[in-house]
């Protein structure tokens, strides 16, 4: 397009103009400043600027929050469930200690933790709820930072020696108990009698209360000593499985054969991707759909640039004709309107980036302020699993958003600038 314009200039005998000369920037700047007669055009330019700024900021904020959700949920889920799970096949897992030692010798394996697990009903003074009871050694529980590093009340000292249990903060709150109080655990798989199977009921004192920060886990998990869990669930000398924590969770697929060989016995091995595939696939689909929807905001703002520039070209037809008669080339006129439209897009994109960055860095404080202002719970942890609103800015995605906004803004200026360059000075001045 620009080659055609410059060729027309040469045919017309116009003097050559250095691209993006100072006078082009000066005229573009004057077109951006409003006058009384041009207020409507300036309003359109203002809306275009605001649209691009809000579109870019919204894209950055939403993508950061979605990334934060994924990383936080991934950290919480893998922090308590492990990256790989080894379960016995054909024979019971009675040699769990020996298997765990062999698995920890596999390269890139951080820890291998045997456990006993079962579902039960827990009850306290304030009510009852379902729970997932997991029995582990004290030494293994301390190797799970999500638990050992988030004990809010009590202690894990002497966990193996006593009958004390560790429960989540939300469970303790719902049951109305604290450290030192006892809760009753009821399992449907109890003793076999001539009258049938009777539920097993036993009271346990609470020795520690932890808070992971994920409401579902804080209200569901109960940890007890491994030997006590074996006796309670009728699994004397056996384990339900072995959880494996590795250096890089994204490489669990490459480690499966090494884990099978390290186990040294028939075993069924699953990883975190197989156990949570539906959940994380839904998150990824939602993230991609939100990106597409919010991109339309930037596109609408770019269309506003087109309409604003077309109206500006119509309004400045006489000025363009005078510039042409004074020696300005068609290329110079085109660049003037390119600068005018691109300035709106570039400044709006930069402002949107800064706004999005500020919001992401202070998103939890903003959430708390809005909740206080409206007297509502803006981010219910029982619905969103997490106790606070996360935001994780990905530099690659942010750069992609900025480039997309700049490209759309530049493309929006091409047609109006081309129309301005093609304006015939004679026709424009004929009725002046």
Automatic annotation (TrEMBL):
It is a multi-pass membrane protein. Residues 49-260 form the MacB-like periplasmic core domain. Residues 291-425 form the ABC3 transporter permease C-terminal domain. GO terms for biological process: lipoprotein localization to outer membrane; lipoprotein transport. Keywords: Cell membrane, Lipoprotein, Membrane, Transmembrane, Transmembrane helix, Transport. It comes from the Bacteria. Pfam families: FtsX, MacB_PCD. Its main location: membrane. Coiled coil: none annotated. It is found in: Cell membrane. The chain crosses the membrane at residues 40-66, 289-313, 333-357, 399-418. GO terms for cellular component: plasma membrane protein complex. NCBIfam families: lolCE. Belongs to the ABC-4 integral membrane protein family. LolC/E subfamily. This is Lipoprotein-releasing system permease protein. It comes from Roseibium hamelinense.
């Amino acid at each position: 397009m620009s080659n055609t314009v410059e060729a027309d200039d040469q045919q017309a005998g116009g003097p050559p103009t250095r691209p993006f000369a100072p006078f082009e920037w000066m005229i573009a700047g004057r077109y951006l400043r409003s006058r009384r007669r041009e207020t409507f055009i300036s309003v359109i330019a203002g809306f275009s600027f605001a649209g691009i700024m809000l579109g870019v900021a919204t894209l950055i904020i939403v993508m950061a929050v979605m990334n934060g959700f994924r990383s936080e949920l991934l950290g919480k889920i893998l922090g308590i469930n492990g990256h790989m799970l080894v379960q016995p096949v054909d024979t019971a897992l009675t040699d769990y200690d020996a298997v765990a030692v062999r698995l920890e010798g596999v390269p890139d394996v951080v820890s291998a933790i045997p456990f006993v697990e079962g579902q039960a009903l827990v009850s306290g003074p304030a009510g009852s709820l379902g729970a997932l009871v997991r029995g582990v050694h004290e030494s293994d529980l301390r190797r799970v930072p999500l638990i050992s590093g988030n004990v809010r009340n009590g202690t894990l000292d002497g966990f193996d020696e006593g009958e004390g249990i560790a429960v989540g903060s939300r469970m303790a709150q719902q049951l109305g108990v604290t450290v030192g109080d006892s809760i009753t655990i009821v399992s449907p798989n109890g003793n076999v009698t001539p009258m049938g199977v009777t539920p097993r009921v036993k009271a346990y004192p609470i020795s520690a209360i932890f808070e992971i920060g994920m409401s579902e886990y804080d209200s569901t998990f109960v940890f007890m000593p491994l030997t006590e869990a074996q006796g309670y669930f009728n699994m004397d000398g056996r384990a339900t499985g072995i959880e494996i924590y590795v250096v890089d969770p994204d490489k669990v697929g490459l480690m499966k054969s090494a884990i099978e060989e390290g186990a040294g016995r028939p075993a069924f091995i699953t990883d975190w991707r197989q156990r949570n595939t539906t959940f994380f696939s839904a998150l990824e689909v939602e993230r991609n759909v939100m990106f597409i929807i919010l991109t339309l905001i930037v596109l609408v703002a770019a269309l506003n640039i087109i309409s604003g520039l077309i109206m500006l070209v119509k309004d400045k037809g006489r000025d363009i004709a005078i510039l042409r008669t004074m020696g300005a080339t068609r290329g110079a006129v085109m660049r003037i309107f390119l600068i005018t439209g691109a300035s709106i897009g570039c400044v709006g994109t930069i402002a949107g980036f800064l706004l999005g960055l500020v919001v992401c860095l202070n998103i939890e404080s903003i959430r708390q302020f809005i909740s206080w202002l409206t007297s509502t719970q803006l981010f219910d942890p029982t619905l969103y699993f997490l106790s606070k609103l996360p935001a994780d800015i990905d530099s690659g995605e942010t750069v992609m958003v900025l480039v997309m906004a700049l490209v759309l803004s530049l493309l929006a200026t091409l047609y109006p600038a081309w129309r301005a360059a093609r304006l015939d000075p004679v026709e424009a001045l004929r009725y002046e």
